[in-house]
């Protein structure tokens, strides 16, 4: 299988390297040429313009994977549209709002172009070594793309979830749940820290992740964060950024008449943390840094 890959950020660059190792041929493009050069050194075919992407895809049905921020997906589609033809497949592997995904599929299908959504979880490490992929779109197109999803995912860590938008909807809810889980963990750490007991939080996080009920990748990342930054997290900002998915989950839940106080509270905490740093915020920022590579130092 040969595909065009657009977007070589924290997630895209690692996934391209994994796909190359899995035997796929990749034509790679990024706005900054340095990233293109980096993956070309690993075996990708470099493309420094959209036209070069399509010239190097010598198949009747071109496959394009987009791995760009949700705010620029429409711009990228507009820019590549002159090079697309009927039967081509475009996959949005980023964190797009599901309603936009549905709209984009309708617009492209009117032109004979197939559009799929693939929510990717696992952060940069997962993208590099095998991610969890939540997929929506036409079932027959999914079957065509199955070798690609199998190559990008960890063993058996991909799932077709239904019609267009289902993948991004499920990933949106996943990220909302993630907000709530992280918030509970961060709040618990602050309770431990201010208690009368002289807890070593590195030790606590280690034992919490040792066959306990709350054992998880998040607790493991927290333990790694304490080892890297120290349990006071002095160099970490107590203000926590958010990237949109938690807000989308809260707003969608309200549209559906579902009460989500945990997720909503976690989202509101991040919004209100601006100008109100706290130890809970430091833990959240540390977690975002450890699994997603997000800046945690407020620089």
Topology readout:
Layout: E1 2-6, H1 10-21, E2 25-29, H2 33-40, E3 45-47, H3 50-55, E4 63-66, H4 73-80, E5 89-92, H5 98-109, E6 114-121, H6 123-129, E7 131-136, H7 139-152, E8 153-162, H8 166-194, H9 201-208, H10 217-229, H11 245-255, H12 261-272, H13 279-292
Parallel strand pairs: 1-2, 1-4, 2-3, 4-5, 5-6, 7-8
Antiparallel strand pairs: 6-7
Can I get a quick summary?
With 299 residues, the protein is of the alpha/beta class. The protein contains 13 helices and 8 strands.
How would you characterize the overall build of this protein?
The chain has about 300 residues and is of the alpha/beta class. It is built from 13 helices and eight strands. An eight-stranded mixed sheet has the order 3-2-1-4-5-6-7-8, with helices on both faces. Strand 7, helix 7 and strand 8 form a beta-alpha-beta unit. The termini are far apart. The mean pLDDT is about 95.
